[in-house]
Design goal:
The structure holds 2 protein chains of 2 kinds. Chain A is of the alpha/beta class. Chain A has helices at about 10-15, 20-40, 50-65, 105-115, 155-165, 180-185, 220-230, 275-290, 305-320, 340-350, 355-365, 370-395, 420-425, 430-435, 465-475, 485-490; strands spanning about 45, 75-80, 115-120, 170-175, 190, 210-215, 260-265, 295, 400, 440-445, 450-455. Chain A is built from 16 helices and 11 strands. In chain A, helix 8 links the parallel strand 7 (about 260-265) and strand 8. The longest helix of chain A has 24 residues, at about 370-395. Chain B folds into 3 domains: about 5-275, no CATH class; about 300-415, no CATH class; about 425-485, Arc Repressor Mutant, subunit A (Orthogonal Bundle), CATH 1.10.10. Classes of the chains: A alpha/beta, B alpha+beta.
Amino acid sequence: MFLDRLSAYQAIDLVKKKQITVSEILQDIIKRIEQVEESIKAFLTLNLKEALQEAKDYDRKINLGEEVPPYVGMMIAVKDNIVTKGIETTCGSKILKGFFPPYNATVIEKLKEAGAIIIGKTNLDEFAMGSSTENSAYQVTRNPWVLSRVPGGSSGGSAAAVVADESQVALGTDTGGSIRQPASFCGIVGLKPTYGRVSRYGLIAFASSLDQIGPLTKNVKDCALLMNIISGSDHRDSTSQDIEVSNYLNYCQEGLKNIKIGIPREYFQEKMDREVKEAFDKSLLIIERMGAELEEISLPHTAYSLPTYYLIANAEASSNLARYDGIQYGYRSQDFHNLFSLYCKTRSEGFGKEVKRRILLGTYALSSGYYDAYYLKAQKVRTLIKEDFDQAFKKIDLLLTPTSPTPAFKLGEKITDPLMMYLSDIFTIPVNLAGLPALSINCGFSQEGLPIGLQIIGPPFGEGKIIKVAYNFEQQNEIEKKKPSIGEIKENKEK
Amino acid sequence: MSEEVVIGLEIHIQLLTKTKLFCSCSTDYIGKEPNLNVCPVCLGLPGSLPVLNKKAIELAVKTALVLNCKINRVSLFHRKNYFYPDLPKNYQISQYDFPLAENGYLEISYPEVRKNIKVGIIRLHLEEDAGKLIHKGEITRANHSWVDYNRTGIPLAEIVTKPELHSPEEAQLFLIQLRNLVKYLGVCDGNMEEGSLRCDANISIRDKKTGALGTKTEIKNLNSFRSVRNALEFELRRQKKILEQGGRIIQETRHWNEEKKITVPMRSKEEAPDYRYFPEPDLLPLRIEQEMIERINKNIPELPEQRRKRLIKEYHLSEKDAQMYTDHSTLGDYFEQAAALFPDKKMLNNWIKVELLGYLSKKKINIEHSPVSPERLVGLLKLITQGIITGKIGKSILERMISTGQEASQIIQESKIKQINDQEEIKKIVDIIFKEHNDSIEDLKSGKEKALNYLIGQVMRYTKGRAKPELVREIIKKKLNLWNT
């Protein structure tokens, strides 16, 4: 048996039926980690000792016929920018090395209550700033499909862990595409929920008005399952919204009648990878065949998304990251002679290049004399971008776009060219600016064997509709359910 | 004088909430072990988020209403970004261009000359307090410092006045009266020494001929009402001297040195930090419903100035007594509760301020804990006005009421001063009194009511208040009828 290949809903079901034990699942996952982690490097911290103990405790209770939480059997990896009590949480940054949070994020509390077991903390671009996970201060995560390629980012560790069967499911965070783009690059399902759907309490902020926590899973059903657990309002997060959470599993049913889908024409004006375009067009045919109605629509302000995003996100980041100063916790430079030099040295040594770049850009955008021209203007454009979507959703139910203009690029290919790197989020960023939910699902492979993602965008709190289309697409998609063969291509060198 | 002094104040008051502005940590920090009242939110730990304290909003709205401000139905929180170790997030959550309230005024009065002046209030906004730094040695030479985050996140209301104060004395007066007001309202304990009320002042000299405003300086580190006045007086002298010598005032922030009684430069306008304000994305816009404003308005107690005026008008109290009951509001409440039950306000006032307060202070008891309730005091006074006991006996009974907690009638019954109910005995005493007061009997015969009361009083005095007054009255009247027939 390869229990590591089970998805969460299968594992939970088998545990309920007492066909397998929680420990058996975990042991197979640990075996898998031992086998592939060296090549993938998805995890920053493994929590296996505690995980094994928890598994044992659940098994004992099940044996005794005691009641256990409803989702026992679920194994989850958590992106390392979500705080976990007593488990080191670094954000992939040197500045938070040795930070053991004294509290759990709301999503972690919910997962623990539900019976999920945390396997470990996954790698990410430092403070979730990046699209390849290469900005981590600790290690480079590789794409399990082709090891010389990036897994995407910033939730690259979470995506790689799931597709490599090192975890059943994972939590990621998405500020400009950081769940969807790695899901696309790794060929799995990734959902960024509506802003306010999932509590941000315990998510280490990059850009507060854009960040959301969401699931990365092997299939749509697991995505729905995880959303059932983590969604809902939270009195500790004022921006979480008190809107009823539906049972998302109910949307995992066949039938796509009376669904109108829009294709935003502006997304196809930029140069796009031929294979991505082909896979996307093929997906449209499948979805149309399933009964959905397709319609080309316009989102006129799309072109302004990228600059708007980098002004707002960096401005918020410059303030959010001010607290890492070497005073209370985390890294402190040893070489200082007064308060000012303590700040300067700590932050110069503790932050990586990309983080410093964004702090500088954000600080500039908020500076007196520039605020109106940059930050305020960006907020106005953000409203226009949101209104584009509002208009579109009056006519159609959902939007379809490719998730990323290209499949996974090579390690090192864009790391020296920040602008090229920023462009890989061009299709995902408008969604964050508008606060909308969007999901990425695999819709094909390139000739090189790299996954290609399809993005389904919904109106606010339209997660159910998105899940429904994604589930149907998943059932109809003729692409063989492939698995990366990490062992075989371990030595594969890209030409 | 050809110039005019222009002073504006920026006052921070700590709001008397039980918990901090954005978390549920206790605000009770004075004398507490450092870093005890802290949690991930007020420590600014990664991932934590602020949640606004509703009570703080209510107290701020209450203050703003009393300062006659317009409450903004929607206001915004902003982040004020600057690095300092007492600020765990390195930004302070404050309000900026959309404050909670704007455009008010406070009327203050000079105590001696009955002059009132209106001082404009530009704005009132909510913000979080910072922590406290304790330096090893002097701040500039300390080789290390400690941080105490107990104070971090305590709610502050910042009140900014218009530059409408015209002397250091007036500034001090304003501050004292504002302090009295917020204390009276229960929104702040107003303790400047402990820092629950803080004040920065800016001052400039206007040229009266041209009317042009002078360059202002801002003074920080004012830790008492006296230091506000002293610092402003010093700064005024300093500015005048510079101007007289043909010099130019530099716009700067100056630090008040309490020991040397001087202000010293802290930073110039050019060195002023750029706080990079932007809307706090972790909080929603603050919406204040009309219903909330009305509810708070309804619960605002009568203000001291209003009460003082009313006490004079309603009870014909002297300015001095009205002021006493206003300054000491519990005593004022005591007086008013008793006054509702007793017609002779002057007598009541005298008994409260002389006898009651005298005995209470002898026993070191606050009026709040007086064993004699307003009702019982009135009970005693009625015995006196009815002539049952004399004022003198009343005083000794009051003293016993305070030490025993008993009612006046109870004390009378239990003591030797028991009433004389026996008709024959009273008749005998009345005869004795009549013999001694022949002239009064003549008055009585001619129908003077006063004379009747006087004679009753004499009987009461003779019996040391023990005769039953109704009976005395009845017997005297009977005798009178006898004579008149």
